[in-house]
Amino acid sequence: MKYQNSVYLKLKDYSVSKENFELIYNSELELLETSPKPTLQKLPSYYESEDYISHTDAKESLVDKVYQFVKGIALKNKLKLINSFNLEEKNMLDVGCGTGEFLLTCKNNQWNVVGVEPNKNARDLAIGKLDKNTSVNIFADIDELISQKFDVITMWHVLEHVPNLDEYILKLKQLLKPNGVLIVAVPNYKSFDALHYKQYWAAFDVPRHLWHFSQNSISILFSKVNLKVVKTLPMYFDSFYVSLLSEKYKSGSGNIVKAFFTGLRSNLKAASTKEYSSLIYVLKSSEN
Protein backbone atom coordinates (compact mmCIF):
# COMPACT_ATOMS: atom_id res chain seq x y z
CA MET A 1 0.00 0.00 0.00
CA LYS A 2 1.59 3.30 -1.12
CA TYR A 3 0.93 6.45 0.84
CA GLN A 4 1.37 10.06 -0.13
CA ASN A 5 2.87 12.16 2.61
CA SER A 6 0.05 14.65 3.03
CA VAL A 7 -0.85 15.54 6.63
CA TYR A 8 -4.63 15.72 6.98
CA LEU A 9 -4.74 16.50 10.71
CA LYS A 10 -2.57 16.65 13.83
CA LEU A 11 -4.17 15.27 16.99
CA LYS A 12 -3.51 13.35 20.20
CA ASP A 13 -4.56 10.27 22.11
CA TYR A 14 -6.99 11.80 24.62
CA SER A 15 -8.07 8.46 26.04
CA VAL A 16 -4.91 6.72 27.24
CA SER A 17 -1.38 7.94 26.47
CA LYS A 18 -1.89 11.67 25.66
CA GLU A 19 0.74 11.21 22.91
CA ASN A 20 0.67 13.18 19.65
CA PHE A 21 -0.12 11.67 16.24
CA GLU A 22 -0.87 12.68 12.67
CA LEU A 23 -3.37 11.48 10.10
CA ILE A 24 -1.80 10.96 6.68
CA TYR A 25 -4.08 11.24 3.65
CA ASN A 26 -3.90 8.70 0.84
CA SER A 27 -5.65 10.28 -2.16
CA GLU A 28 -5.64 7.05 -4.17
CA LEU A 29 -7.70 5.21 -1.55
CA GLU A 30 -9.37 8.25 0.07
CA LEU A 31 -8.07 6.79 3.32
CA LEU A 32 -6.42 8.28 6.40
CA GLU A 33 -3.58 6.46 8.16
CA THR A 34 -2.49 7.07 11.76
CA SER A 35 1.17 8.02 12.03
CA PRO A 36 3.31 6.90 13.67
CA LYS A 37 1.66 3.52 13.99
CA PRO A 38 2.61 1.70 17.21
CA THR A 39 4.64 -1.47 16.87
CA LEU A 40 2.74 -4.74 17.23
CA GLN A 41 4.49 -5.20 20.58
CA LYS A 42 3.43 -1.79 21.91
CA LEU A 43 -0.07 -1.64 20.44
CA PRO A 44 -1.81 -3.63 23.24
CA SER A 45 -0.62 -1.11 25.84
CA TYR A 46 -2.86 1.56 24.26
CA TYR A 47 -5.90 -0.56 25.16
CA GLU A 48 -4.91 -0.92 28.81
CA SER A 49 -7.28 1.61 30.26
CA GLU A 50 -10.56 1.50 32.14
CA ASP A 51 -11.67 4.16 29.67
CA TYR A 52 -11.54 1.64 26.83
CA ILE A 53 -15.15 0.69 27.29
CA SER A 54 -15.67 -1.89 24.52
CA HIS A 55 -13.47 -4.27 26.51
CA THR A 56 -15.48 -3.86 29.71
CA ASP A 57 -19.08 -3.92 30.88
CA ALA A 58 -18.64 -0.69 32.87
CA LYS A 59 -21.79 1.30 33.73
CA GLU A 60 -20.45 3.94 36.11
CA SER A 61 -20.00 7.28 34.33
CA LEU A 62 -22.52 9.11 32.15
CA VAL A 63 -20.59 8.12 29.03
CA ASP A 64 -20.58 4.48 30.20
CA LYS A 65 -24.33 4.55 30.78
CA VAL A 66 -25.02 6.12 27.38
CA TYR A 67 -22.75 3.53 25.74
CA GLN A 68 -24.48 0.60 27.45
CA PHE A 69 -27.96 1.98 26.66
CA VAL A 70 -27.11 2.47 22.99
CA LYS A 71 -25.44 -0.95 22.87
CA GLY A 72 -28.67 -2.62 23.99
CA ILE A 73 -30.62 -1.05 21.12
CA ALA A 74 -27.79 -1.73 18.66
CA LEU A 75 -27.76 -5.44 19.53
CA LYS A 76 -31.40 -5.77 18.46
CA ASN A 77 -30.73 -3.88 15.22
CA LYS A 78 -27.66 -6.00 14.43
CA LEU A 79 -29.60 -9.22 14.97
CA LYS A 80 -32.44 -7.92 12.79
CA LEU A 81 -29.92 -7.16 10.04
CA ILE A 82 -28.31 -10.60 9.92
CA ASN A 83 -31.72 -12.30 10.14
CA SER A 84 -32.88 -10.27 7.13
CA PHE A 85 -30.59 -12.23 4.80
CA ASN A 86 -32.76 -15.35 5.20
CA LEU A 87 -29.81 -17.70 4.86
CA GLU A 88 -30.35 -21.46 4.78
CA GLU A 89 -27.47 -22.04 7.18
CA LYS A 90 -26.71 -19.79 10.13
CA ASN A 91 -23.00 -19.99 10.87
CA MET A 92 -21.76 -16.61 12.07
CA LEU A 93 -18.32 -15.26 12.95
CA ASP A 94 -18.03 -12.06 14.98
CA VAL A 95 -14.54 -10.61 14.62
CA GLY A 96 -13.57 -8.41 17.55
CA CYS A 97 -16.43 -9.76 19.64
CA GLY A 98 -15.41 -7.78 22.75
CA THR A 99 -17.22 -9.02 25.85
CA GLY A 100 -19.52 -11.25 23.81
CA GLU A 101 -22.95 -9.59 23.93
CA PHE A 102 -23.61 -9.94 20.20
CA LEU A 103 -22.46 -13.57 20.20
CA LEU A 104 -24.84 -14.31 23.06
CA THR A 105 -27.72 -12.49 21.36
CA CYS A 106 -27.19 -14.47 18.15
CA LYS A 107 -26.72 -17.77 19.97
CA ASN A 108 -30.02 -17.23 21.75
CA ASN A 109 -31.64 -16.74 18.33
CA GLN A 110 -30.58 -20.01 16.70
CA TRP A 111 -27.27 -18.91 15.21
CA ASN A 112 -24.14 -21.07 15.40
CA VAL A 113 -21.57 -18.56 16.58
CA VAL A 114 -17.80 -18.24 16.74
CA GLY A 115 -15.89 -15.21 18.01
CA VAL A 116 -12.44 -13.68 17.66
CA GLU A 117 -11.18 -11.32 20.37
CA PRO A 118 -7.45 -10.57 20.80
CA ASN A 119 -7.84 -8.74 24.13
CA LYS A 120 -7.54 -11.33 26.91
CA ASN A 121 -9.64 -9.47 29.48
CA ALA A 122 -12.52 -8.97 27.05
CA ARG A 123 -12.18 -12.54 25.78
CA ASP A 124 -12.33 -13.96 29.31
CA LEU A 125 -15.48 -11.92 30.03
CA ALA A 126 -17.04 -13.22 26.82
CA ILE A 127 -16.15 -16.84 27.56
CA GLY A 128 -17.59 -16.53 31.09
CA LYS A 129 -20.77 -14.97 29.78
CA LEU A 130 -21.32 -17.56 27.05
CA ASP A 131 -20.31 -20.58 29.12
CA LYS A 132 -23.33 -19.97 31.34
CA ASN A 133 -25.41 -20.48 28.22
CA THR A 134 -23.54 -23.06 26.17
CA SER A 135 -20.02 -23.67 24.99
CA VAL A 136 -18.93 -21.30 22.21
CA ASN A 137 -15.51 -21.05 20.63
CA ILE A 138 -13.82 -17.68 21.07
CA PHE A 139 -10.34 -17.42 19.59
CA ALA A 140 -7.53 -14.93 20.14
CA ASP A 141 -6.54 -14.76 16.47
CA ILE A 142 -8.35 -15.06 13.15
CA ASP A 143 -5.58 -17.36 11.87
CA GLU A 144 -6.90 -20.10 14.16
CA LEU A 145 -10.01 -20.31 11.95
CA ILE A 146 -8.36 -20.64 8.57
CA SER A 147 -10.05 -23.98 7.70
CA GLN A 148 -13.59 -22.79 8.52
CA LYS A 149 -16.23 -21.07 6.36
CA PHE A 150 -19.06 -18.81 7.51
CA ASP A 151 -22.40 -17.63 6.15
CA VAL A 152 -22.08 -14.28 7.90
CA ILE A 153 -18.99 -12.48 9.19
CA THR A 154 -19.44 -9.32 11.24
CA MET A 155 -16.93 -6.65 12.25
CA TRP A 156 -18.51 -3.97 14.41
CA HIS A 157 -15.99 -1.12 14.65
CA VAL A 158 -13.04 -3.48 14.29
CA LEU A 159 -11.49 -2.98 10.83
CA GLU A 160 -9.98 0.35 11.90
CA HIS A 161 -7.96 -1.51 14.57
CA VAL A 162 -6.33 -4.06 12.23
CA PRO A 163 -2.56 -3.57 11.66
CA ASN A 164 -2.16 -5.39 8.32
CA LEU A 165 -5.18 -4.12 6.44
CA ASP A 166 -4.87 -5.73 2.98
CA GLU A 167 -3.80 -9.05 4.46
CA TYR A 168 -6.70 -9.05 6.91
CA ILE A 169 -9.26 -8.25 4.23
CA LEU A 170 -8.00 -11.21 2.19
CA LYS A 171 -8.41 -13.49 5.24
CA LEU A 172 -12.00 -12.32 5.66
CA LYS A 173 -12.73 -13.21 2.04
CA GLN A 174 -11.20 -16.66 2.54
CA LEU A 175 -13.38 -17.31 5.61
CA LEU A 176 -16.58 -16.31 3.81
CA LYS A 177 -18.74 -18.85 1.99
CA PRO A 178 -19.24 -18.06 -1.75
CA ASN A 179 -22.76 -16.76 -1.08
CA GLY A 180 -21.90 -15.38 2.34
CA VAL A 181 -22.36 -11.87 3.69
CA LEU A 182 -19.69 -9.68 5.26
CA ILE A 183 -20.82 -6.82 7.49
CA VAL A 184 -18.30 -4.09 8.30
CA ALA A 185 -19.14 -1.10 10.51
CA VAL A 186 -16.62 1.74 10.77
CA PRO A 187 -16.53 5.45 11.64
CA ASN A 188 -16.80 7.87 8.72
CA TYR A 189 -14.32 10.75 8.76
CA LYS A 190 -16.43 12.62 6.18
CA SER A 191 -19.38 12.96 8.55
CA PHE A 192 -20.48 16.36 9.86
CA ASP A 193 -19.47 15.57 13.45
CA ALA A 194 -15.97 14.57 12.27
CA LEU A 195 -15.59 17.81 10.31
CA HIS A 196 -17.05 19.80 13.22
CA TYR A 197 -14.81 18.42 15.99
CA LYS A 198 -11.68 17.99 13.82
CA GLN A 199 -8.77 16.87 16.05
CA TYR A 200 -11.15 16.33 18.98
CA TRP A 201 -13.39 13.89 17.11
CA ALA A 202 -13.49 10.88 19.43
CA ALA A 203 -13.88 8.36 16.61
CA PHE A 204 -10.36 9.11 15.37
CA ASP A 205 -9.30 7.38 18.62
CA VAL A 206 -5.59 7.33 17.74
CA PRO A 207 -3.52 5.20 17.86
CA ARG A 208 -6.03 2.38 18.47
CA HIS A 209 -7.68 3.32 15.19
CA LEU A 210 -4.92 2.81 12.65
CA TRP A 211 -7.09 3.56 9.60
CA HIS A 212 -9.91 6.01 8.96
CA PHE A 213 -12.32 5.21 6.16
CA SER A 214 -14.51 6.97 3.64
CA GLN A 215 -17.18 5.20 1.62
CA ASN A 216 -14.89 5.13 -1.41
CA SER A 217 -11.99 3.64 0.54
CA ILE A 218 -14.14 0.71 1.70
CA SER A 219 -15.29 0.01 -1.87
CA ILE A 220 -11.76 0.17 -3.26
CA LEU A 221 -10.12 -1.94 -0.55
CA PHE A 222 -12.66 -4.77 -0.72
CA SER A 223 -12.86 -4.75 -4.52
CA LYS A 224 -9.27 -6.03 -4.47
CA VAL A 225 -10.60 -9.36 -3.15
CA ASN A 226 -13.75 -9.32 -5.31
CA LEU A 227 -16.13 -8.19 -2.60
CA LYS A 228 -18.58 -5.43 -3.42
CA VAL A 229 -20.69 -3.14 -1.24
CA VAL A 230 -24.34 -4.03 -1.88
CA LYS A 231 -25.86 -1.87 0.85
CA THR A 232 -24.78 0.97 3.14
CA LEU A 233 -26.68 1.64 6.36
CA PRO A 234 -26.41 4.42 8.97
CA MET A 235 -25.65 3.99 12.66
CA TYR A 236 -27.78 6.86 13.95
CA PHE A 237 -26.74 6.70 17.61
CA ASP A 238 -23.02 6.98 16.91
CA SER A 239 -23.16 10.70 16.17
CA PHE A 240 -24.60 11.37 19.65
CA TYR A 241 -22.24 9.11 21.58
CA VAL A 242 -19.16 10.26 19.63
CA SER A 243 -20.17 13.91 20.05
CA LEU A 244 -20.50 13.42 23.82
CA LEU A 245 -16.97 12.02 24.01
CA SER A 246 -15.66 14.69 21.63
CA GLU A 247 -17.07 17.45 23.84
CA LYS A 248 -15.23 15.86 26.77
CA TYR A 249 -11.94 15.86 24.83
CA LYS A 250 -12.48 19.42 23.62
CA SER A 251 -13.57 21.12 26.85
CA GLY A 252 -12.69 18.66 29.61
CA SER A 253 -16.33 17.94 30.41
CA GLY A 254 -19.04 16.30 28.33
CA ASN A 255 -21.53 19.05 27.45
CA ILE A 256 -24.67 16.96 26.95
CA VAL A 257 -26.70 19.72 25.29
CA LYS A 258 -23.97 20.64 22.79
CA ALA A 259 -23.28 16.97 22.07
CA PHE A 260 -26.96 16.22 21.48
CA PHE A 261 -27.44 19.06 19.02
CA THR A 262 -24.19 18.30 17.18
CA GLY A 263 -25.21 14.65 16.89
CA LEU A 264 -28.68 15.63 15.70
CA ARG A 265 -27.27 18.11 13.19
CA SER A 266 -24.90 15.45 11.87
CA ASN A 267 -27.76 13.03 11.25
CA LEU A 268 -29.95 15.69 9.65
CA LYS A 269 -27.17 16.69 7.26
CA ALA A 270 -26.45 13.04 6.51
CA ALA A 271 -30.06 12.52 5.45
CA SER A 272 -29.04 14.23 2.20
CA THR A 273 -25.26 13.66 2.05
CA LYS A 274 -25.40 10.02 3.33
CA GLU A 275 -22.22 10.78 5.32
CA TYR A 276 -23.33 9.46 8.72
CA SER A 277 -20.99 9.38 11.73
CA SER A 278 -20.62 5.61 11.34
CA LEU A 279 -21.71 3.40 8.48
CA ILE A 280 -22.51 -0.28 8.12
CA TYR A 281 -21.32 -1.82 4.85
CA VAL A 282 -22.95 -5.02 3.62
CA LEU A 283 -20.59 -6.81 1.24
CA LYS A 284 -21.00 -9.86 -0.99
CA SER A 285 -18.86 -11.60 -3.57
CA SER A 286 -18.73 -9.89 -6.98
CA GLU A 287 -17.85 -13.24 -8.55
CA ASN A 288 -21.37 -14.70 -8.25
From TrEMBL:
A GO biological-process term: methylation
Official protein name in the record: Methyltransferase domain-containing protein
Superkingdom to which the source organism belongs: Bacteria
Keyword Methyltransferase set for record: yes
Keywords of this entry: Methyltransferase, Transferase
Ranges that cross the membrane: none
Single Gene Ontology MF annotation: methyltransferase activity
